[in-house]
Amino acid sequence: MPDPQELRDISIIGGGPTGLFAAFYAGMRGASARIIDALPALGGQLMALYPEKYIFDVAGFPKVLAKDLVRDMATQALQFGATTHLGQVVTGLKRAEQNGAGHFVLETSEAEYPTKTIVIAAGIGAFAARKLGIEGEERFEEKGLYFKVLDPKQFTGQRVLLVGGGDSAFDWAVNLQGIAKSIMLIHRRDGFRAHQATIGQVQEFQRCGKCDLRTFWEVKALQGNGRVERVTIFNSKTKEEETLEMDAVIPLLGFHSDLGAIKEWGLDTEKADIKVDQVMGTNVPGIYAAGDITSYPGKLKLIATGAGEACIAVNNAVHWINPKAKVNPGHSSNLAIFGQKDD
Ligand SMILES: Cc1cc2nc3c(=O)[nH]c(=O)nc-3n(C[C@H](O)[C@H](O)[C@H](O)COP(=O)(O)OP(=O)(O)OC[C@H]3O[C@@H](n4cnc5c(N)ncnc54)[C@H](O)[C@@H]3O)c2cc1C
User: Fold this and answer.
1) Is the pLDDT of residue 175 over 70?
2) Is 168 close to ligand 1, i.e. is its CB under 6 Å away?
3) Architecture of domain 8-127+255-338 in CATH?
4) Which residue of 136, 257, 313, 336 is most buried, as measured by CB atoms within 10 A?
5) Whether the CB of 251 sits within 6 Å of ligand 1
6) What is the Å distance from ligand 1's center to 279 Cα?
7) Which of 3.50.50.60, 3.40.50.2000, 2.60.130.10, 1.10.10.10 would CATH assign to domain 131-251?
8) Where in the chain is the domain with CATH 3.50.50.60?
9) What is the arrangement of strands in the sheet containing 241-245, beginning at the earlier edge strand?
């Protein structure tokens, strides 16, 4: 078992799909690696926000559940011995020296991790769901008030109030059909950010009485003895109020994300993203970035692009550590590390 605090070649901040693929590539190149993540589980947005949703645009998978993709990416990523350090927010960055050579030290609340290079795959930062902003809501968290749906079966036979006008709220208004006893979806405006096709589906459910879709309604108060039992909603136009019996309230209002301490590291940023060059290098030599956190002309925030960027970042980090190591990894189908022979 390697010492978790030993000097590693590459430390990856973030165990989302990009960080996982970076760990795989590090192992394939023979570089020692670790992943540090603030969340208690690997998978980033896929596990935290939409584990039960199908993804259709990952190469090689006509469709794949987010949680299944994470499971397989983690198996692929960890096969070479990369260690994972979960539930730890990276807060600080220092420089240190060992045997005359300089390196970085990443600091978390729990430990210090010496490393020759860093790949920042921190996605949208350490993120937290947007709250309703009503008094006392924290009392009901996970007691009838949920900011994400991890397992839809949890809502079997329940009266569910969804709040929001984006993809998540509309997707769950569709996906909880046949599971929840009743579904109401309220939004504070009459414009929606969800896909038109899903909006159409929900409007169709409304026409046949399977969903109560209301605009200009917001949550005013939650009531109940130890868990949500009733919800008061109000109409911001008419000032009308209604108190409804409800088992579950699911606000899907997006999330705040915060680069946190990473902002203080002297990295060039654009809004909340880190600027990178063609090799995914930041303005600080030895620090690379990949995935949703990066900004460059033409950037697309997708799992597929994050994987490509992880590959570029890691191969360049390997070359940066040892200039004799080629940037080009060669073809995995020919590599001895997988028991293959050169063509
Ligand atoms: C509802 C929804 C559906 C989506 N559907 C698709 C789809 O169908 N296809 C597609 O390609 N993309 C989809 N996406 C986008 C996709 O999820 C992202 O592009 C992808 O997750 C980015 O991966 P990442 O590893 O770069 O970042 P993330 O998945 O955000 O992972 C970053 C990780 O870094 C950690 N982290 C951040 N800051 C710190 C810190 N300071 N210390 C420690 N850890 C830290 C976070 O906890 C997180 O686990 C969807 C997104 C959402 C929200």
Assistant:
1) yes
2) yes
3) 3-Layer(bba) Sandwich (3.50)
4) 313
5) no
6) 21
7) 3.50.50.60
8) 8-127+255-338, 131-251
9) 217-223, 230-235, 241-245
Does 169 sit in the ligand 1 pocket, CB within 6 Å?
A: no
Render pLDDT for 40-99 as a digit per residue (tens, 0 to 9). Answer: 889 999 988 888 889 999 999 999 999 999 999 999 999 999 999 998 999 999 999 877
Q: Which residue, by CA, sits nearest to atom 48 of ligand 1?
A: 44
Condensed to tens digits (0 to 9), the pLDDT of residues 109-165 reads 899 999 999 999 999 887 677 899 999 999 999 999 999 887 899 999 999 999 999
pLDDT at residue 1, rounded to an integer? 64
What tokens does 188 get?
């504070």
Residue in 20, 25, 42, 45 to alter for ligand 1 test, most ligand atoms within 8 A of Cβ: 45
By the 8 A CB rule, do 314 and 26 touch? yes
- pLDDT value of residue 272: 83
Cα separation, 140 vs 28, whole angstroms: 46
Please check the confidence at residue 14 and state whether its pLDDT lies above 80: yes
Ligand 1 atom closest to Cα of 44?
Answer: 49
305 pLDDT above the threshold of 70: yes
Question: What pLDDT score was predicted for residue 87?
Answer: 85
**Residues in contact with 325: Cβ distance below 8 Å, sequence separation at least 6, in sequence order:** 29, 318, 319
Ligand 1 geometric centre to CA of 35 (Å) = 14
Task: Say yes or no: CB of residue 193 within 6 Å of ligand 1.
Answer: no
